[in-house]
# Entry
Amino acid sequence: MKQVEILAPAGSIESLYASLNMGADAVYVGTSRFGARAFAQNPSVDELQEALLYAHLKEKKIYLTVNTLLNEHELKNDLYDMIAPLYEKGLDACIVQDLGVLKFLHESFPGMDLHASTQMTIFSGEEANLFKRYGVTRYVPARELSIEEIRQARSQTDLEIEVFVHGALCYCYSGQCLLSEVIGGRSGNRGMCAQPCRLPYKTPYGDGYLFSTKDSCTLFQIPELIESGIDSFKIEGRMKKAEYSAFLAYVYRKYTDYYLTNGKEAFQMLTEDPDSPLWQDYVHCQDLYNRGGFSKSFLFEKDKQNMIDTKRNNHYGSLVGTVSKADRYQPTVELQKDISYQDVLEFRDEDGNSCYEYTVKDPAKKGHTIRPKVLPDSHIYAGQKLYRTRNQDLLNWIQTKMQESKEDIPLTGSFSAHLGEPMKLTLQAKDVEVSCEGQEVTGSVKKAATKEDVQKAVCSLGNTWYCMDSLTCSIDPDVFLPVGTLKKLRRDAIDKWQEAFGRTYIKDHRMKRMVCSDAMTEVPAKKEIKGKTLVSVTGLEQLRTVLEVAGSSAMIHLKLEDFPCQDLPEAARLLQKTDIAISFPRVLRGKGKENFLKDWEQWGGSLRPLVSAVLVNSHAMYLYAKKFWPDACLLADENLYQMNSMATQVYEEFGLQKGPDIVYGRQAVMVTESCLAKTLKRCGKGDQQIPVKAPKGDRFIVCTHCRYCYNTVYTKDARKGQGKSENWRRIDFTFEENKEVREVLRQWI
# Structure
C-alpha cells in the first residue's frame, strides 16, 4: 500500500519543529494573518522561511493556512506580500477557504499546490473536481462524512484526500458557522472563533453543553482509514501545546507504519489485547487531551448521540480509580492505573463536576489502594470516580523524546589550503555540492596549522542542523590558518549549500506539480434576473399567502429542505403563472441525500419544467442545477461567501450571479450534522423547532430536518431592512405564521 502522510498541527514554531522531528510528514501552520486560528502563537514569516528549509532538508512539507475570508483590501494589498517570500522558499501548499483567495493564489503563484479547506464544505469528489481549474491538488472533505462516503469520494476524483483523524470537532459544518460572530462579534470565518459551541445552553427539554462535541480518536480504525484511499491523516490542534502535536504525530506515524508493515491481522491483535502498546498509547492520548472520553468521529460513529458530551466541555482526562470508601478527610481509592509524582488527579461527581483536585506526591501502582487527604466538605462519596488530568510521566517522556528526535543532517566535506591560493571548503549532501573559497593562504610565522586544527574548527557545527560526517584535508606544510577565518569559511559554505539545496528542492518539486487536465477555456453565459423580490417559502400555507398578497410581482423560492416534497404537485399547480426559484436541502449527502432524491423523483416532476432560477446553496446544489436546469439563472445564496471581487469572479466563471440581499429573514447561524433532538432524547417526533438560550441571553431556534438528517440553527428574531428598497432583494420566510407573512409582505411589496 502507498505511504500515508501524517499531517500535524503547528500553532507555534516549537510545535512545528517538534512535530516534524517526532514523525509528522508535514505540518499545517498559520502566520500572523489570514489563518483560522488567529489566537495561536503563530510563527512569523521570517521564522517560517527558516522552517521551510529545515522541513525540506528532512524531506517534509509545510502547508500554510490561508483559510479565512478576505476583504478586498486584504486580498489586493496584503496577501501577495505575505505569500511571496514563503513561495520563494518553497512553500509546499496553501490551505484555502475563500474562492477569491484560491483564484488569486493560483494566478499569482501557479507553481504552488492549493488545498481546498474543510471550510469549503465539500461533500464529494465530484464537488472537489470543480476546483481543479484553480490549482487545487488536494481537498479536505467536511468532517461529518462517514468512511463509506470517503470511499465513494476516492472513486470520484484523483485529487489527494486529507481527512481529520484526531482532535476537536466543530458542532457546525466548518465554514457554515456564524454563531461566534452573532453572539460576540468574533467571526470564525475570519479566524477569531470564540468557541460558543462550548458554552452551556438551555432549552425547554433539558440544559447543558448541548453543542459541545467530544474529541475524536481513530487510532483503532487506522486499517479502515488507509484502505479507504485517504492520502493524509490530519490531526487537529493548533491551539494545543507542542507536546500534544508531537506525541500525536509520533503515535499516528507509529501505528500507521505498523499496519503497513505487518498487515491487518497483526493490527487486529493489538486492538484485542487491552495490555498492548496500542491501548497504552490510546490512554496516553486521553491523558494528553480529550473532551468526553473520545468518539470515533463521524467517520465511524453510527449514533449521533455518542458525539456529544453535555456534562463537561473541557479536558476529560483518563479514569484511574474508584472510591471504595469515603470519610470526611481521607477517601479510600482502588487504583485502575499507575499514578506518578506530580500527576494531577480529580474527583468528579456523576455530572462531571470537579469535587476535589490534587497533585500526587506519592506514586502508586495499579491494583493498590491510596488514601489521599482532601479538604472537609469536598463531597467525596463511595463509587465516585477519580480521573487524571495531567500525566507527568508522559509529559516528561514526550519532552525527552522531542530532544532525542533531533537528528543532524550529515555533511561530507573536503578542505584544501595551498600556499598562495585561496583556502577552499567543499560540502556535499543530498546530491548537492558547493565549494566556497576564503582568503589567500599565507605562510606561518610561528606555529603551522595542522589537519587537527582544521577539523576542530570546521567540524564544530555547534547549534546548527548539521554534523560533519567526514572531512578530508589537503594542507601545505608551514601555512597559517586563523581559526576565525576557518569558522567564517565554514559558515559561508553552509549558507551557500543551503541556498543551492533550496533552489534544487523548489525546482524538483514544482516541476512535478499536478497539471490540471480540465482547465476552463471559457466563461459560461450568465443569465440574470433582477427587479423582482425573491420570496422564500417553506410550505403550502406560506405559498398561498404570498401569492394572495404579492401576486406576480414576486419570484417564489421553494426551500425544499423544509417544503414537503409531497406538496410539490400542488405547488406546481399554484405556480403555473409565476416565476419560480428552487433550492435543494443545504446538506446533500449520505442517507439524507438518498431520501431527498427519492422524494424529488417521486414528487418533483410537475414542478421541474417550471423552474427559471436556482438558488445555489452548496457545491452539490450547483451540480444538480447544471444537471436538471442547464438553462436556468443560477443565484449564489448568502452562504457562498463573496467578500471580495475575485470570489464574485469565480462564481461568475461558474455561471452564478450574486443572489439578492436579504431584507427580512432569520439568520442561519449553524448547519449541523449533530441533532439536538437526538441529544435531548426527542428523536422520532418529526421535524421540530427547539428554542435555545445562550448564557448571555441570545436566543435561537433549532430546526430539525429529520427526513434529510441535519439541523439548522436560526436566530430567534429576523433581520429586518429599513424602508422600501427598489433593489434586487429577498424576503426569507422560515416558520412564520400567515399573519406575520402578510405583515412582512405589506412592508416590502
In short: The chain has 21 helices and 34 strands. The first helix runs from residue 13 to 22.
